[in-house]
Design goal:
about 350 residues, mainly alpha, 3-stranded antiparallel beta sheet, 13 helices, flat, disordered N terminus
Length: about 350
């Protein structure tokens, strides 16, 4: 064959294989929100609430991505909450906080409307306060751990979850102190331990220790620890001082570690006990666990305690929050007297008039 007739050799270049490692897929939006919240060490309840509101916001606008929306869509959603669903101002503000967190901390959008959003004004309501006699009647209807919890709520001014999350190491009977760890706003504080309940509390701790020993013998006895303490102190989850003061009656198996743990007593059980006791005591008020905390602050003010001291005991960031309890200075037995109750002057035109 003539060399001129030979077919021309064509070099076919094969594509060079991409040896660059592929970048991991970007997490979904709600997963990014969850990571951002946990990275800032917000409470788990805050995480659940924020994720719930962001999910509702997205569904309200037909599953549009928040990056495609701005101020008008947020306003429309918040207005619908107030008008169509009739939510309270505090609920509406929580929804707004969740959406602002999404745009500012997750999407990184510092939009002009962020600062212009107006929070709904919460109505100013006075707290429900029990008299000392009503507190005594309520406590008389409670038994067991529920009685101790109510005594701590009233005697130390604790929030319900603060009380249920107490661990054995947080009590100091010798100094009559309770240390609140990681309370509201992630703040620690010290409040008073009522000396009157120390004997009952000691019996409860002894019974709790006996239960913990049985759990240890059965290969259980673990408890959840805050942050990364379990990694730092591997034996701590089974140590006595880290156990809950008010453990649950049942255990559970942690999905991640497989440990047999006990959670603390659930809030709903205590709330139910308080309502049943208030009804049995015949107290004609909307009695709640938080009403005992209100009564603690009010009764301290009535006894002449300093407002700043009460602020520290309650763990309020601003004294203005504590000042709501000064309503006792203007009402009740220590407040303003009605002119009808003053001794009447003989020349008073109302004197002797039938009532």
């Amino acid at each position: 064959m003539d060399r001129r007739e030979r077919p021309e050799l064509v070099l076919i270049e094969r594509p060079t294989p991409d040896i660059t490692p592929s970048s991991p897929a970007k997490p979904r939006l709600l997963a990014q929100v969850s990571d951002a919240i946990r990275g800032r060490h917000y409470a788990r309840r805050t995480e659940r609430a924020y994720l719930g509101w962001i999910r509702r916001f997205i569904l309200f606008h037909g599953k549009r991505h928040p990056g495609e929306m701005a101020g008008p869509e947020v306003t429309e959603f918040l207005t619908s909450l107030a008008v169509d669903r009739g939510v309270s101002a505090s609920t509406q503000n929580q929804a707004l906080s969740a959406i602002l967190f999404l745009y500012k901390e997750v999407l990184g959008r510092d939009l002009p409307w962020l600062g212009a959003m107006i929070h709904a004004k919460r109505p100013e309501r006075l707290p429900v306060v029990l008299s000392r006699a009503e507190v005594a009647a309520l406590l008389a209807e409670l038994r067991g751990p529920a009685h101790l919890i109510a005594c701590l709520l009233y005697g130390g001014g604790l929030r319900l979850l603060e009380c249920l999350q107490l661990r054995i190491k947080d009590l100091d009977p010798a100094r009559r102190e309770i240390r609140i760890r990681d309370g509201k706003g992630r703040k620690d504080r010290v409040t008073v331990l009522p000396g009157l309940i120390i004997p009952e509390l000691s019996k409860h701790v002894t019974a709790t220790m006996a239960q913990h020993r049985l759990d240890l013998a059965a290969g259980a006895g673990y408890v959840a620890l805050p942050d990364a303490l379990a990694a730092k102190y591997p034996n701590a989850p089974r140590e006595w001082q880290w156990q809950w003061l008010f453990p649950a009656s049942r255990g559970y198996v942690d999905r991640k570690t497989g440990e047999h743990r006990r959670h603390h007593r659930h809030e709903s059980a205590v709330q139910r006990d308080i309502k049943v006791a208030a009804r049995a005591a015949g107290i004609p008020k909307l009695v709640s666990c938080h009403a005992l905390r209100h009564s603690f602050a009010t009764h301290l003010l009535e006894s002449g305690q300093d407002i700043r001291t009460i602020q520290e005991l309650l763990g309020h960031k601003d004294v203005a929050t504590t000042m709501i309890y000064t309503h006792v200075l203007n009402s009740g037995p220590l407040g303003v007297r009605s002119p009808l109750d003053y001794p009447q002057d003989p020349t008073d035109p109302l004197r002797g008039r039938p009532r």
